[in-house]
């Protein structure tokens, strides 16, 4: 989480520093850009909350369904005469096992959805870094920055790219884990 925040801070710093250089005397552009960033942030937060609520609702629905199924099976077993205790234990164990597998699959799906969000963030950060490179090149071409300023900005961009590569590696590792666990559950 700290890595993500660091990347985000660096990208925002680079974006605002280049915007402030480009928009000197243009407070409307700064305000407009700030509003766009705030809107995107609010939208992302809302989307995450909505998905979280959806997953909670689905999980509770499945849990209720599994409980109802278990209750129905218990009632059916109790109506039968004979070896009721053995059958009830076997069905309960089977239902519990199925419920655990369903719960594990749900957790893996939730994790997979989370990783999709992480990939979207990765793509967003990658776009921001590309935009920062373009702005830096434009400033270089116009000669608005000194050699030291150019060197500092290039160093910041390189650091952001390194962090972004580590972030992508962690996403890929997590996806591989989810894939392996999913294949185990399906078998």
From TrEMBL:
Q: Which residues form a coiled coil?
A: 122-177
Q: Which domain of life is it from?
A: Bacteria
Q: Signal peptide position in this chain?
A: 1-23
Has the keyword Coiled coil been applied to this entry?
yes
Record bears the keyword Signal: yes
Q: Keywords of this protein's UniProt record, alphabetized?
A: Coiled coil, Signal
Q: What is this protein called?
A: Uncharacterized protein
Organism of this sequence: Winogradskyella endarachnes
């Amino acid at each position: 989480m700290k890595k993500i925040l660091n990347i985000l801070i660096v990208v925002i710093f680079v974006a605002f520093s280049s915007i402030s250089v480009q928009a000197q005397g243009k407070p409307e552009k700064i305000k407009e850009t700030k509003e766009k960033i705030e809107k995107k942030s609010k939208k992302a937060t809302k989307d995450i909350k909505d998905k979280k609520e959806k997953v909670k609702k689905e999980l509770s629905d499945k849990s209720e369904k599994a409980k109802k199924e278990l209750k129905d099976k218990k009632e059916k077993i109790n109506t039968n005469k004979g070896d009721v205790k053995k059958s009830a234990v076997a069905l309960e164990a089977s239902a519990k096992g199925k419920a655990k597998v369903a719960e594990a699959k749900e957790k893996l799906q939730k994790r997979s959805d989370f990783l999709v969000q992480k990939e979207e963030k990765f793509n967003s950060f990658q776009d921001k870094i590309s935009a920062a490179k373009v702005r830096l090149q434009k400033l270089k071409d116009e000669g608005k920055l000194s050699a030291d300023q150019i060197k500092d900005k290039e160093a910041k961009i390189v650091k952001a790219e390194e962090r972004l590569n580590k972030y992508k590696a962690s996403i890929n590792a997590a996806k591989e884990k989810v894939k392996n666990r999913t294949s185990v559950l399906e078998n």
